[in-house]
Amino acid sequence: ALQMFEVIYCKTPYHTDVAAVLCSLGFNYKTMRQCEKAEQCYTRALAIYEKIHGTNSVHCDIASTISGLSYNYSVMGKYELAASGYHRALAMYEAIYGSNCNNKDIADTMHYIGCSHYYQNEYEKAEEWTKKALLMYQGLRLDETNIKDVGLMLNNLGYFCNRMRRFDSAHTYLTKALEHFKIHRAGDHISLAHTLDSLAEHYRDRHQLDKFHVTAREALEMFKRLNPNHKRILVLESMLQHDSECHFRSDRCSYPLM
Length: 258
Fold this sequence. Notes:
Elements: H1 2-8, H2 16-31, H3 35-53, H4 60-75, H5 79-97, H6 104-119, H7 123-138, H8 144-163, H9 167-184, H10 190-205, H11 209-226, H12 232-241
């Protein structure tokens, strides 16, 4: 498709259709963890959009492309670049929609900023931005996507508090996330399994091993029912076998959830 559009628009290479295809390619490469190719696609797309709309213009296409590029930087472990890009995208979205407007693009970007701070070990900033995202998600119409977003923010806040050893706050957030998913999700669901996983780890860190065993086994069985090859299955089985080792280890959950 890209080659076709480049042939069609060979005399006017700076065209939104070419940029849109590049963004789609960037997303696919990012999903396949081919991050260098994804970076090239997003960078080319951004250059086209800035050529069309102006380098200093405020436009949704520019903001979404910067956000996609920033997410790719997060996957690559370039968290400072990711945070910088997200802040630029956020400023643009707020200029477009208004800083006081409940908007999913703004909430998503706040969420990603929080995750970027977490990966730089800036837990308080991660908590601050995730709280902002949660408030905005809660102000949006409750639909299938928003149910997931609200629950994930509660889960991530619990995880951040757990890392800061603020165990009471962590337990409050994680149990709220669990209740949220149980109310709005029927039966087994991957979001519910991840929250049970986070709560089990919380109990282990607090040396509440009876609660850890019950919750970890519930998470383990749900992961098995949902996907017998899920990467958390072996980790949870290992955690259950070595429950006395309650310090921070490499078998911690791969959170925060993006």
